[in-house]
Write a structure and sequence with these properties.
CATH superfamily: P-loop containing nucleotide triphosphate hydrolases
Strand order of the largest sheet: 2-3-1-4-5
Largest sheet: 5 strands, parallel
Distance between the termini: 37 Å
Structural class: alpha/beta
Shape: globular
Number of strands: 7
Number of helices: 9
Radius of gyration: 17 Å
Order of helices and strands: EHEHHHEHHEHHEHEE
CATH architecture: 3-Layer(aba) Sandwich
């Protein structure tokens, strides 16, 4: 199935980028802005807090070992539950909430594509619906890694050579979806967080028909 033929979920927004790109920081700020605007919403992330996601986090944290292909399958299973399970993305969109997620399909294409090759993650994620808006946080991995140098615990992927491969894999993945039904916005995540935040709020506000800077509906 070609990307242009996939389903698209309205009011589903995804943030993507290498580790340390700032997606988590902007996710929190975006949640606060949506709350201030009185917009029903759900802020989420992958891996999720579900059992599948908890297992993935143990692997990423170095507690458990798993083959790269196994990790790709686990991400797909976690994503399937995240989408279609009780209280998941599809259910929340169906009751009128906007959904903003830190990481989704492109993370698998980039990270698992860099570990086990692109064919398996493409196959596993082929029929998952696309978000209506994807915001890609583009940053030099040298800068993003400098942001997480002070963390007490590092995940297995948080190494500069690997992040450089992931950034290249993101570019290849983004190219696959150009011209498709998913709107893609690239932001320069090397800029100060406040400047990045303004770009994110403007894009999400446009997508949802909100003036998020003022916290009110347009």
């Amino acid at each position: 199935m070609l990307p242009a033929e996939r389903g698209r979920l309205r009011r589903f927004i995804v943030l993507e980028g290498v580790d340390g790109a700032g997606t988590t920081t902007q996710l929190k700020a975006l949640g606060a802005a949506l709350s201030a605007a009185g917009e029903p919403h759900w802020i989420s992330a992958e891996p999720t807090g579900r059992p599948e996601g908890a297992l993935i986090r143990r692997i990423l944290g170095g507690e458990l070992e798993a083959a790269p292909a196994t990790v790709a399958y686990l991400f797909a299973a976690d994503r399937c539950e995240h989408l279609y399970g009780s209280g998941g993305i599809v259910e929340r969109l169906g009751r009128g909430e906007a959904v903003v997620c830190d990481r989704y399909i492109l993370s698998s294409l980039a990270y698992q594509g860099a570990t086990c090759g692109i064919e398996l993650p493409l196959y596993l994620n082929d029929r998952f619906p696309l978000p209506s808006l994807l915001i890609y946080f583009d940053v030099d991995p040298r800068q993003s890694m400098s942001r997480i140098d002070g963390r007490e615990r590092r995940e297995i992927y948080e190494l500069l050579p690997f992040q450089e491969r992931v950034r290249a894999a993101y570019e290849e993945a983004l190219a696959r979806f150009e011209g498709g039904p998913m709107r893609i916005l690239r932001v320069d995540a090397g800029l100060p967080a406040a400047e990045v935040g303004r770009a994110v709020l403007a894009a999400v506000g446009e997508e949802l028909g909100l003036d998020l800077a003022a916290g009110s509906r347009e």
